[in-house]
Amino acid sequence: SAAADPALLQICRYIDENLTQKLTLGQISLLFATNKTTVCRLFHEHLNQTFVEYANRKRIECAKSMIRTGGKNFSQIAEELNISSVHYFTKLFSKYENMTPGQYIKSLKFKQNTIE
Fold it and tell me: 46 partner at 20 to 30 Å CA-CA among 52, 53, 70, 81?
């Protein structure tokens, strides 16, 4: 877990708080006065994923929250989360959630209808 390493915990917190910014390995390395290899190793050893996977997973978690809140279309969500295009957003969402954003909305409506 990230809690096992104080440096990784700081990096993860920074990523979590800056999902709307462009996040690069080089930028993170400079910001935390380390190098790309060390950042990569920390993510791999403690979280069993890459820096990019971590950031993308967090972006998709944030996107799901934005979808549940409503008021924004997929293009706006992608733009706000600094994802290059709505097509790439859909691809990322599908990769991490095993469904498209549209299917996710339908699943929310289905759950809501079965509760009522």
Answer: 81
